[in-house]
Amino acid sequence: MDEQAALALIGDRLSVAGDDCAVVDGQVITTDMLHQRTDFPDGTTRYTAGWRAVGASLSDVAAMGGDATAAVAVYAAPTFDDAELTAFLDGASEVCELVGAEYVGGDLDGHAEFTVATTAIGDADDPILRSGASPGDALCVTGSLGRSGAALRLFDRGETARANDLFRFEPRVRAGVALRDYATAMLDSSDGLARSVHQLCRASDCGAALDEPLPIADAVDAVAEDAADRRELGLFFGEDFELVCTVPASAVADAQAATPCPLHRIGTVTANGITLDGEPLPDRGYSH
């Protein structure tokens, strides 16, 4: 059973599952687990690991239009090194401060592999779900795509300083809050743009027609082998933690003006089918 099949099984058993966060009495809550082997390439600093792990959960809060309030983490490692643990705490605390939340602790555990489990909570009286898109809505994405894919290439090359910089992203909490007045559906792009669009369309029972050019990060140009490789990193790699949302076409300009980061229109919601420049867009993306 792959990750998508496992998620489908959970959705069948738990009717409240399926969005980026659970909704409980006006709050949104989410949890994530990251491992050395699958999530932290060689050369990832503990500071970046703390930032990225907690940031991933804060991104889920952002995807619901939630105002992030706090985060905790479980830190598990073969040994507890003073410098490494301090750096992790610094990264976790500073990414929270960046979005107006607070890192409030967690738990420690011994483990054969460096592993982090994070939980974030936020306030959202009227959270944005994945299921509200309608044909005619504009399909939009914040920021730029492919930063994490570019970082992985740089880690492989041993260019760890630049790679760590790209691996630390700003969770789009403030953008998510700003989009509460406009977005009809939203999720984050942790699984990649293509898969995120498929997930949104399944939840909303609709299709989407995407158009190039897409907002691919400049960092991708420095590592991509050719145009096809650039497109691969921007569309399918994932782990960029941008917001993918739908907005009434008449409100796009207002939403762009209200959002404190770039908000790009990349297509239109349709009745069925998911295409890029008229060709079918595969449901492919990041898998653990």
Description:
This protein has 288 residues and is of the alpha+beta class. The chain is built from eleven helices and twelve strands. It has helices at residues 3-13, 36-39, 46-63, 82-98, 147-157, 160-167, 173-178, 193-204, 218-221, 227-235, 252-258, and strands at residues 22-24, 27-35, 67-77, 102-110, 115-123, 138-142, 185-188, 207-210, 243-247, 263-270, 274-276, 279-280. The strands form two sheets. A seven-stranded mixed sheet has the order 7-9-6-10-8-11-12, with helices on both faces. Strands 1-2-5-3-4 form a five-stranded mixed sheet. Helix 5 runs antiparallel to helix 6 (160-167). The longest helix has 18 residues, at 46-63. The radius of gyration is 18 Å and the shape is globular. The relative contact order is 0.17.
